[in-house]
Amino acid sequence: MKKKFIFYLSIIILLGSCHPGGIEYYEDTDVVYTNYDDSFDFQSKGVYAIPDKIVKLEGELLEGEEPAFVKEPYNTQMLNQIKSNMTTLGWTTTEDPADADLVMFPAVWTNTTLYYYYDYWCWYYYYYCGGWGWGYPSVSSYTTGTLLMTLVADGDEYIDPTRVWTANINGLLSGAYNSSRVTKSIDQAFTQSPYLKTN
Amino acid sequence: MIFGFLLMTAKSYGQQDSYMSVQYSVSFGTGDMGDYISKTSWRGMLIEYRGYVSSKIFVGMDAGWNVFYERKDYDTYTQGTESLSGIQYRYQNQVPLLATLDYLIVTDKALKPYVGLGIGTMYSERSTDMNLYRYELNSWQFALKGEVGLLYEINYSSAVKLAVKYYNGFKTNSLGNQGYVSVNLGMAWSL
Question: What confidence tens digit (pLDDT) does each residue in B25-60 have?
Fold first, then answer.
């Protein structure tokens, strides 16, 4: 009897210790994705234009309606970081997009996902909805934030404006804006895109 | 594992030389598995049943579970024109289920060295977490095991068991060869 008890106890202890760790902090979820058109010759270009406002995507716009924009000072912080990286890679800016080799379009959006925990048998028999707390539906949610940077070419060689570089920065949002997370991810987008460097 | 329990219950009486064993496992991945997770696995267990055939030969079953985990620091992964940077959390679960044959080299002393072989299947489950997404690969693989170990008899019905095992799950369509070495320490009780 004692042997069996030790046998089962050791199995329970060993099984109980088999779950490893995982994500602990919001910034642990930060990812930076980039992709580019490898037929586009970035090296021979060198002038780009960029708007002075970052669009905040919030849904479909009605005709004539202006989109929402990122509030200050976050708008300027992000734009300055993008410009700083482009300058480091040898690019200069121009006010008029018509004079530019490429146009940078930054945009942000957030996405909230709701989780419902609902004891689905509750509707059937009231006993299971009773006062222990576990019978009631509860809701939890998480929100992710995305910054998209797109370089678009529309020179003579293109019929339509064409996306030649895309950077997508995404992470789980905490309650407060964390500028160091955004700055670090913008820098990373350019670090992993060395082909953007001009002569 | 359940089958192991049933075996124990069914054969608890009248076979004094058969035994059950529970062991704690520490494991290291090799080859493709070692490349995927280089950290040592400190989470593992093994249940064994061994049935008496002769004083030197035992046959039985192994059911194990080894959990490998590694947090890969922030890094960039590039494929073609695409690059993705972030922290990866890598998990791999190995569940070997094997028929076994052990050969005791020494039988007349308290310390009994032995060698063993195993054949059967191994369930491999590989998960990679990045951002809020999980990428999974699962496979049942044909598996072989080689083993060397020591049994040290404490008294007429109990022994300490120390074993080093090498498991190899053979390549399937979804997963390459998965191999690992595990060092096991546990108790054995005669039935």
Answer: 999 999 999 999 999 999 999 999 999 998 899 999
Model's pTM, two decimal places? 0.79
What's the number of CA atoms in the CB half-sphere (13 Å) around residue B101? Answer: 7
Is any Cβ of chain B less than 8 angstroms from the Cβ of A127? Answer: no
Tens digits of per-residue pLDDT, A163-189?
999 999 999 888 777 888 999 999 999
**Nearest alpha carbon to residue A46 among A96, A93, A116:** A93
Q: Using alpha carbons only, what angle is made at residue B182 by residues B178 and B183, rounded to the nearest 5 degrees?
A: 175
Select the residue of B22, B78, B81 nearest A7 (Cβ to Cβ).
Answer: B22
ipTM value > 0.85: no
Residues A42 and A87 sit within 8 Å (Cβ to Cβ): no
* CB-CB contact of B168 with B178 (8 Å): yes
Residue A100 identity: A
